[in-house]
Amino acid sequence: MSGATGTTGSVESKLAELGLTLPEVVPPLAAYQPAVTTGPYVYTSGQLPIVDGTLRATGKVGAEVTADEAKELAAVCALNALAAVKSVAGDLDRVARIVKVTGFVASATDFTGQPGVLNGASELLGAVFGDRGVHARSAVGVAVLPLDAPVEVEIQVELTEQT
Fold it and tell me: Strand, coil or helix: what is 34?
């Protein structure tokens, strides 16, 4: 497995090794930016499970969407968040650490498995970044999300200085 700050492109090489491709940044759905920087931090906006311009699923987790499906969708959200980070950082190899993941799960009234759903995002970030992917996290159940998405994920990342 690659080290903390390897050669340029090592994070994207790791993604490829995992069979993943960094997507294009999902265009904003309203008046916001996909990611912004302040000091050494990047904050992403909430990312939906959009692939090639299409929302992969709709509905409530625990009703129309299973917890396992939602976990996969959370990983898609995390991949979209990494694309947003790259759009402002220039290179994912600048990621010193994933600091915080916040996930929102559109939940059926009796669904209480939000942490398991968000493991999809956390496990992807851990697989890609190793120890740098260990983060704090919140998993929040909500009534509804934009476009009736089942899950939304935002991340906070600390960057190394640009060389």
Answer: coil
Please check whether residue 32 is in contact with residue 45, taking contact to mean a CB–CB distance below 8 angstroms. yes
Return the SS3 of 132: helix
pLDDT grade for 8, boundaries at 50, 70 and 90: very low
For 98, phi then psi, to 5°, come to -85, 115
- Residue 149, SS3? coil
159 and 98 Cβ atoms separated by less than 8 Å: no
- Whole-angstrom Cα distance, residue 57 to residue 53? 12
Show the tokens assigned to 126. Answer: 């851990």
Token output for 44: 């992403």
Residue 95 in contact with residue 134, Cβ under 8 Å?
no
Residue the block writes with tokens 């903390």: 4
Written as one string, the DSSP assignment of 88-143 is HHS-GGGEEEEEEEEEEEEB-TT---HHHHHHHHHHHHHHHHGGGG--EEEEEEES
Tell me the two tokens of residue 135.
């983060």
Q: Tokens at residue 53, please?
A: 């311009």
Q: What's the pTM?
A: 0.93
Question: What does R_g of the chain's alpha carbons equal in angstroms?
Answer: 15
Q: Is the pLDDT of residue 78 over 90?
A: yes
